[in-house]
UniProtKB/TrEMBL annotation:
Keywords: Hydrolase, Magnesium, Metal-binding. Belongs to the inositol monophosphatase superfamily. It is an enzyme of class 3 (hydrolase). Its EC number is 3.1.3.25. This is Inositol-1-monophosphatase. It catalyses: a myo-inositol phosphate + H2O = myo-inositol + phosphate. Coiled coil: none annotated. Its cofactor is Mg(2+). Mg(2+) binds at E62, D79, I81, D82, D206. It comes from Eubacterium coprostanoligenes. Pfam families: Inositol_P. GO terms for molecular function: inositol monophosphate 1-phosphatase activity; metal ion binding.
Amino acid sequence: MLNQIIEIVKKAGEIYRSAGDDLGICEKSSSVDLVTKYDKKIQDFLYTELKKVLPDAQLFGEEGDGNKELTDGYCFIIDPIDGTTNFIKGFQHSAISVGLAKDKELIIGVVLDPDLNNLYYAEKGKGAFLNGKPIHVSDCNIEKSLVLFGTCPYEHELAHKTFKLTEDVFYKAIEVRRGGSAALDICYIAAGKADLYYELIIRPWDWAGATLILHEAGGICTQVNGDELSLNKITSYVCGNEKNLKEFYEIYNAQ
């Protein structure tokens, strides 16, 4: 089943790369919450093809039709283009993300970076991989960490808190980066390309596929205050290793 999902996601990547000048850009909730016709085209393709793999599975995704919450049984959690603004601007840092849950527990994660053609994937209990090679999180503390963060672009009321927290983290870490794709940020932590990632509010489809990859790579993720995550809730998110997460909680709680 994992191989079937991988092949479907690769074909979705071909749709992403076929995009021309006319992206069909529309606003959703605000002028910074954008969607293109390719978001919908890729999600429709994924819905159709993934249902052939598991006909009884429910579909939980960002765009268009499908469930608006996670269900029991099999459920695909899909973000057709995580990093739509990057896609629109040609920034070349976006992801196609598919997670599969069974009875609300993640069992498969596949995340494709279609610009770099990097494929991250994992199956529960079988390790995590990037282009066929095993990956693992780093063991860096904050002092030696490259930190990634999200700016909660749809909730500007969290901007001050986000940037204050990031300033405090910045003074303790090597550097900070803002990439614009939560799925890729989490996969970068899983692969040891960076060491810690956080965002004060995030949707389940942004992190579901990548989080199984993170877990299988030895990573830990929680809400920013240390509470458990829920696939059915809009929530905060932080991931890393045991060392730097402990230090992050101390910084966050001192705010």
